[in-house]
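Milestone 3.1: sequence recovery, worked example.
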């Protein structure tokens, strides 16, 4: 026989409302174990568990998955059961709500509750469940993996970002459907979007923004008057797929898969020109309304709730500054790379040579993860071709770093020149070009 148990929780020990929200946000699984203080010989798999917050009321309903067993953490003294949360109570049902049933007046829990687990007499179980049934809603649990697993997966990819930056991105996506990542070139903006989508199980599309984008037609498609047909883009097709997934998930009563549409270098074109319609529709959707982009010669494009728009932008680009309208509607995150550890990229002899001038070098030029990886690859090729380390490092710095425009004071460039070995002829030539104002690409001296 299926019994009903009430688990009363002290808010000073655990906020059930916050716990439930964390589960729905993917911070914790819906299944777990719960410690018992009594009734360990009476509770069985299949029983119904009501999670009750002291001073508030019924918060959630769960199914008992196991009989009582010894805790792995403390097998000598503690017993526990397995559970799976299945429903959320909306609104929270207080004790007064149930006390309207006169027949419950002699049940101890509704008179003077003591302890943290109560067994409802079998003859009153169905009565209580019928009373609460209209207010119990199926719990929406993400189909993606949980955040701790996402974070662990991202670390394994080698993404060289501070943990805080990655967490900011995760929480921004959970808070809003428009997120913009900024940072210096090569910091890992696009990499983060792809690695996160793969770890979270989201569908992913990266769309490079072209400087010649003039309007929404470049982004979402246009009507060809000559052929009398609508010409879609990969972006509009991706949004259509997201809408199809949304409706299918609704029919199957499951959480929909997230769709991440990434606009790479979104500020290369004037963002307001091509993104304005979608920006407005995303704002309408935030109010819980269905949103459609009207198209001539094609069905209106639905903007579903499982679509997330993400942009990347380089801080070096003067076109970075977004309009107030966009800035007000997006989470803008500046990614900060972790401190560079030379030993993560180079062999001990290479590290020993680089350390002689690393500080002035990093003060004059931005050395991104991409740059360091390219230098690492070049030095590896040098070992294969038996090129001396000093000669190869001179070549790759001149080709990869010193041809770039540097805006640091002249005295810093001078300090770097003094720190570089005199045998680095190509590097010295490139730095001389910097000081003389000849910012051309690397050339043979």
């Amino acid at each position: 026989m299926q019994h009903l148990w009430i688990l009363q929780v002290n808010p000073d020990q655990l906020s059930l409302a916050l716990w439930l929200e964390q589960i729905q946000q993917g911070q914790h699984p819906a299944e777990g174990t719960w410690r018992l203080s009594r009734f360990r010989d009476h509770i069985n798999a299949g029983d119904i568990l009501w999670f009750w917050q002291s001073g508030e009321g019924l918060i959630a309903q769960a199914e008992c998955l196991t009989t009582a067993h010894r805790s792995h953490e403390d097998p000598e003294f503690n017993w526990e059961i397995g559970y799976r949360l299945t429903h959320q109570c909306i609104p929270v049902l207080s004790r007064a709500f149930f006390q309207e049933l006169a027949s419950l007046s002699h049940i101890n829990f509704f008179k003077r509750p003591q302890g943290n687990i109560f067994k409802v007499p079998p003859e009153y179980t169905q009565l209580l469940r019928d009373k609460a049934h209209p207010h119990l809603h199926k719990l929406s649990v993400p189909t993606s993996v949980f955040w701790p697993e996402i974070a662990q997966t991202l670390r394994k990819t080698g993404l060289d970002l501070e943990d805080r930056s990655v967490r900011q991105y995760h929480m921004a996506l959970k808070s809003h459907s428009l997120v913009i990542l900024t940072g210096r070139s090569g910091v890992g903006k696009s990499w983060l979007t792809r690695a996160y989508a793969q770890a979270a199980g989201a569908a992913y599309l990266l769309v490079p923004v072209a400087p010649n984008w003039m309007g929404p037609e470049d982004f979402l498609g246009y009507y060809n008057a000559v052929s009398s047909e609508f010409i879609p883009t990969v972006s509009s097709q991706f949004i259509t797929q997201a809408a199809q997934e949304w409706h299918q998930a609704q029919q199957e009563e499951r959480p929909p898969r997230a769709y991440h549409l990434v606009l790479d270098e979104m500020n290369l074109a004037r963002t307001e020109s091509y993104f304005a319609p979608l920006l407005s529709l995303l704002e309408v959707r935030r109010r819980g309304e269905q949103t459609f982009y009207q198209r001539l010669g094609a069905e209106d494009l639905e903007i579903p709730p499982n679509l997330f728009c993400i942009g990347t932008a380089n801080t070096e680009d003067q076109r970075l500054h977004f309009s107030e309208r966009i800035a007000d509607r997006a989470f803008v995150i500046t990614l900060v790379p972790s401190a560079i550890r030379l030993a993560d990229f180079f062999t001990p002899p290479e590290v020993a040579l680089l350390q002689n001038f690393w500080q002035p070098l990093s003060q004059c030029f931005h050395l991104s993860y991409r740059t360091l990886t390219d230098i690492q690859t070049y030095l590896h090729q040098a070992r294969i071709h038996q090129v001396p380390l000093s000669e190869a490092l001179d070549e790759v710095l001149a080709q990869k770093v010193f041809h770039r425009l540097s805006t640091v004071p002249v005295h810093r460039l001078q300090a770097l020149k003094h720190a570089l070995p005199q045998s680095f002829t190509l590097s010295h030539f490139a730095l001389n070009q910097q000081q003389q104002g000849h910012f051309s690409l690397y050339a043979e001296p």
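Confidence is low (pLDDT under 50) at residues 439-445. The first helix runs from residue 16 to 24.
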